[in-house]
Amino acid sequence: xxxxxxxxxxxxxxxxxxxxRKSRPRIDLRRLGRAALLGPxxxxxxxxxxxxxxxxxxxxxxxxxxxxxxxAYVLAESSHRGQMRKSGEPYIxxxxxxxxxxxxxxxxxxxxxxxxxxxxxxxTDVTLEQVGExxxxxxxxxxxxVTKLEKVxxxxxxxxxxxxxxxxATGNDVRVMSIKLAxxxxxxxxxxxxxxxxQARIAKVTRDVLIPLAERLGVQALKTELEDLVFAILHxxxxxxxxxxxxxxxxxxxxxxxxxxxxxxxxxxxxxxxAEVLIRPRHFVSVHRTSRKRGQLRGADFGRVLVLVxxxxxxxxxxxxxxxxxxxxxxxxxxxxxxxxxxxxxxxxTAVARPDGQVVEVLIRTxxxxxxxxxxxxxxxxxYAPPSEEQAxxxxxxxDPTRPGWLSRLLDWQEAAPDPDxxxxxxxxxxxxxxxxxxxxxxGGTLGLPAGASCVDAAYAQYGDDAHACxxxxxxxxxxxxxxxxxxxxxxQLLMGQDASSEPSREWLEHAHTPAARIAIQRWLAxxxxxxxxxxxxxxxxxxxxxxxxxxxxxxxxxAVVDQPGATVRLAGCCTPVPPDTVTGFAVRGGVVTVHxxxxxxxxxxxxxxxxxxxxxxxxxxxxxxxxxxxxxxxPHLLADLTEAIALEDVAIVSATVEPPSQQRVRHTYTLQLxxxxxxxxxxxxxxxxxxxxxxxxxxxxxTAP
Length: 706
Fold this sequence. Notes:
The chain is α+β, with helices and mostly antiparallel strands. The strands form five sheets. Strands 1, 2, 3, 4, 5 and 6 form a six-stranded mixed sheet that branches. Strands 12-16-14-15-13 form a five-stranded mixed sheet, covered by helices on one side. Strands 18-19-17-20 form a four-stranded antiparallel sheet, covered by helices on one side.
């Protein structure tokens, strides 16, 4: 069955959220299961087993029609009757728990109905046709979308196609992904009886793809708990140390957060501003990151003060009073109301200093902003319902808030990706991006791009394949090269050539940061090889490199050079391929095969001069060596902090170089040995989290002639 289980009595990674949910006891799933076994309720009343779901749903949607929930529960309970989870609980407890998670976040009735039924088509005799006849086409579509995701194995070979389907399903209706995330959260909560290696495998997939998707969909409540559960499984020692820090802090007699909260209440009360002031504890991973960043933690580091008001204008009123009556830390101020994050998040961030030197972070937002911050797209209700007047745009068409820029971009380039492996590696690179920027066009439109994007990326985001004719750009009114890295809020005017023979330059690949730009450029270069270009650099015959573990070489035509087990191969320095990159090879002098990523610009050049391509594939060994380039602002102890972040990811540093600072910016190049290639996105995220580091990328070197 699709859902994993464990015995609730077995110690497992369920404690990370306990410190922030003390006032609300966890639902007794065993009691719900016993209620389910008593059989369906009478048709004129709601079953007792879904009373918690109904209570949570009514809190957000007091006028909702509850009949679909009753009928969905009756069908799910009768269909799953006799099926048990590995913990011995009735299986119905799983869809109930998933539905409760969504109900607490404010999901609308259609989503909850589909959630109750999400395993019926896969695990019982219920058909999609029956679901459609009984509950309508919307519920049928959502159940079908979740079922398709569940049917695909999460093994290494299946992952690319799994997440391609997941992405398409998300793009068609984000509620499919909402159900999937809640389903994964409950399974992660109850993962304890699985074998350690299976726990680790599920946790890694959750870390690399599902958590970034939850971040991009704005569902912070799910994202933070998933992070803590993954942290407990993959880093048990660090998790236990963090837990001890939280427990020790809770036992302290003084609480600077509570004291500041009282001061804030007094200031706002005197100013006549109605506000709710709460203490918001940091989750485990946040505490861990803060301890790595600041070293010894003090009481104020374990949480933030949250101020909730009714109107947008009140947010700025609260900010003014706090900055007037308390000591603000001006450098900590951020306005995500005027410029929301790409995942619907809005809030004012500031910080105030206490007399003892402790700094307390303060978040200011409306109640509606808080709901959106916690639940993201789930808080939108039914995004496909007929729009109200204020939801329609000037043309009378509905604006779709569930298709943010990053999702539209992914949907566009996944169609252009030549194969699942290219899609998979590019997806993980894109999801590793921590933030998005917004740049403005002269016509008043905007482009959403990942941080670090260049004018090349802006050109392909705006014009698609027509960007091949781009000749230059103006950034904030001044002429700029296409390699210029854009900043949030820049205005970009792209200068397009009128000549139909205009073509992209190979050098653009060095500056292309987005999948759409890279794929479009590579596709053009592959279709327009330049004859006579020099092949990739070749190593001398007298100094062949040793074989690379984990790589199998197979000839596409007869050859005594490579048709041997353990043939000598070399990973090309121009593109530093690692598993699971799709790779190809070329025989070079000295009986060596040089291996490139298929999208490497050297591949097109070597094909263009008639070099024979050799088929290569990765073997079972996933250990790999990769070169990463970190771009940062200069500051004391930066090198030490970066190397510590790398070491904490269990990655060995083979070599490191630091270029002299230029305009207060420093470029670090690391050659690293990874025990598991799949850990590369997490390593890059950890390096980007080091203060002062603004970008980390795979090294791209220019291929030279022999």
